[in-house]
Amino acid sequence: MELISGVISDQNTYKMTEKKVQKIINEVYPKIEKHYGYSKFIPECTPYVETHYNIYARHSGEPEARGEQDDCHAEFDRTDNSIVIYYPNMTSRKHIIQTLVHEYQHYLQSPSWFKRYYNMGYDYGNHPYEVQAYGEEKNWKLFN
Ligand SMILES: [Zn+2]
Asked: I need a surface site. Which of 33, 34, 59, 68 has the fewest CB within 10 A?
């Protein structure tokens, strides 16, 4: 599942409600869009942000489906040009902003190089695009 990105969640068991997560997205995402602008690979529009409760349930269409990556935070779905936030795995306002900033980088990045780097032998931990996306998260305060 190449589109999946996110990090293994920490021991924080606090869960935010979907409503609260959505409220924070509504507040901060316009600032992220304005700051980073349009991708040259998808110049028509910026990604739509949606929330969902579980990555397996979303991909299979089975409401009860679960799997090994239940702690997946978010993904950028290039086909739909959407950022999907798995709200039960969000732990704080900061975390939501970092996640949006991270996934937005994938919208900006080249889809062909995304695949090519993996073909060259990079994995999730050292893929240059993931390194870049994680690095960008440190700027989360710009959007707070
Ligand atoms: Zn990523």
From this structure: 68
